[in-house]
Amino acid sequence: MLSLNQRLSQQQKLSPQQIQYQKLLQLNTLALEQRIKTELEINPILEEEIELTQDQEEPEHDKDDELENEIKDPDKEEFEIEDFMNDDDYDHEKVYRKGEEETFQPIAPQRESLSEYLLDQLRMLHLDENLFMLGEEIIGSLNDDGYLKRDLPDILTELELFEHVKIDPAIAENLLKRIQLFDPIGIACRTLQECLLVQLRNSKSADQYYKYLAEKILVDYYDDFTKRRFDALKQKLNMTDETLKETINLIQNLNPKPGEGNIESAEMNQISPDFVIEKVENDYIITLNDKSMPSVTINKSYLEMFDNNRKRGKKTNREKETYKFLREKFESAKWFIACIQQRRETLMKIMQAIFHRQYEFFEKGPKYLRPMIYKDIAEEINMDISTISRVVNGKYVQSDMGIQELKYFFSEGLSTDTGEEVSNKHIKERLKEIIVKEDKRKPFSDEKLAELLNDEGIHIARRTVAKYREQLRLPVARLRKEL
């Protein structure tokens, strides 16, 4: 049976301005700069504000004439036009402005990417069109470390299927081996073993005797080498400690990641900090790194057009459409400018709160990082935890301690015997120090590392030590062993 009921309920909905603010809050400096440029393109009401020099400033009598012609919106439903009409009356606090001081950053010299560098070497082989196409596919299939992670037969199959190019597998293998001799040598190898062997066999500086032994190890006893079974290697090859040490050193001096550190993975993804913290005498100055941002303001010509359209009594359909369009764009422009300023204030408030809680870190370094969670900052500045999360994600701060993501400053803590809480990042730093100073002939096991930390008053389980060690990308004791 159908029935009709009336019910009163409350629902919380975000306004368009709040939604826009939340989106802007998530953007880092570079993304925000692009977002502002995009908004300038799609909203004709907004324009980039050009800072005038003293000689370019308007004469005072022109400003007085403008003041006499202030336009006021009689409806005053959502905004007031006079807020935007005059330079003197305009609320500059609501405009995203550049700082007064100019900053100049050196432009990095243009450099080739690794792919471009390899393609230049490929062209020097003067290959026919089909083989050059295969070479391009091989170079385009390298990962960040410089390894070929696609099977060569798969590349040949795709070339035949999509480009109607058929290449003999033996010829393709020969081309791959030629590419592996490009600079950096060992590039485009399929495994670490192959990469080390290519470098070793083409080394001209290595002693021939040690070179022979190193190749023997990599070909016949590779498993023993990777698992650091040095006693087994010494016995199987009938080597002295000194000979084994020289041979292992020769292998370890080869480059296991020939593609690492190239321009594509480093400079092209260079971090641009969102905040800069500088120490001046005994004080710290926190600034938002936004001086390269375009300053946005309201276009006066469109304001006048809107006002003229509004003053007309009876309007044609075209004039009504124009009025509606301009009003929507004015609202959008006003909201965008307000959101930019609100974002700036929120970011500064959160960064200042983080700085005050982590003051000792900026003074003394990572070992003095305090335990801190999002809730701590949210309660201190009376904001929602979700807002803190949006701000710290993907934002970076530059200080004397380097460049850190804001998330770096948040960590859980453990209690010591003295009752003091220490950050898990402090524990990781201490763990790293112990491992660096250990005797590499007898490296500490995870259980022993846990005992050493417990002796220092830091109560931690072996499995937690193992987890932190893995996060620090430090191998287990067996793989840290050296001769």
Strand line-up of the largest beta sheet: 3-2-5-6
Q: Major beta sheet, specifics? A: 4 strands, mixed
Query: What is the assembly state of the chains in this entry?
Result: single chain
| SSE ordering | HHEHHHHHHHHHHHEEEHHHHHEEEEHHHH
How many helical stretches? 22
Radius of gyration: 32 Å
Strand fraction equals: 5-15%
Tell me what you see in this structure:
With 483 residues, the chain is of the alpha+beta class. It contains 22 helices and 8 strands. It has helices spanning 16-26, 29-42, 60-68, 82-85, 114-123, 129-140, 152-162, 169-179, 192-201, 208-220, 222-226, 230-236, 241-252, 300-311, 317-357, 359-364, 374-381, 385-392, 424-437, 446-455, 462-471, 477-480; strands at residues 46-48, 275-280, 283-288, 296-298, 396-399, 402-405, 413-415, 421-423. The strands form 3 sheets. It has a 4-stranded mixed sheet, with helices on one face. Strands 1-4 form a two-stranded antiparallel ribbon. Strands 7-8 form a two-stranded antiparallel ribbon. Helix 9 packs antiparallel against helix 10, helix 10 (208-220) packs across helix 13 (241-252) and helix 20 (446-455) crosses helix 21 (462-471). It is extended.
Write the layout of secondary structure elements.
Elements: H1 16-26, H2 29-42, E1 46-48, H3 60-68, H4 82-85, H5 114-123, H6 129-140, H7 152-162, H8 169-179, H9 192-201, H10 208-220, H11 222-226, H12 230-236, H13 241-252, E2 275-280, E3 283-288, E4 296-298, H14 300-311, H15 317-357, H16 359-364, H17 374-381, H18 385-392, E5 396-399, E6 402-405, E7 413-415, E8 421-423, H19 424-437, H20 446-455, H21 462-471, H22 477-480
Parallel strand pairs: 2-5
Antiparallel strand pairs: 1-4, 2-3, 5-6, 7-8
